[in-house]
Amino acid sequence: MSMSRGIDTGTELPAGREEGLKRALLAAVAVGVVLLLGAAIFLWQQHGTALFFDTLAAGIAACF
Fold first, then answer.
1. Most buried among 10, 13, 51, 56, using CB within 10 Å?
2. What Å distances lie between residue 15 and 2, 23, 35, 38, 43, CA to CA?
């Protein structure tokens, strides 16, 4: 027997508004990914592979 019960907190959003918030969140994540990818491409063009290998090596070293 489950002890969990559905408690109405009154904080549920209408279906249309909830869908809009999901789309806005998805759009914000997509913009963030595109900006990070663009920054990575820009840095790759400016500094070549050395920057990325140094960053990777520093990240691995920080783990140990």
1. 51
2. 28, 12, 30, 35, 42
Q: What per-residue confidence (pLDDT) applies to 50?
A: 84
Tokens 């759009």 -> residue: 27
Which of 6-10, 17-21, 26-30, 48-52 shows the highest mean pLDDT? 26-30
Neighbours of 48 (CB within 10 A): 10
Contacts of 44 (CB under 8 A, 6+ apart): 51, 52
Q: How far, in Å, CA of 53 to CA of 50, rounded?
A: 5
The angle that helices 49-63 and 15-47 make with each other, rounded to 10 degrees, is 110
Placement of tokens 């789309």 in the chain: 23
Which of 33 and 52 is assigned the larger pLDDT?
33
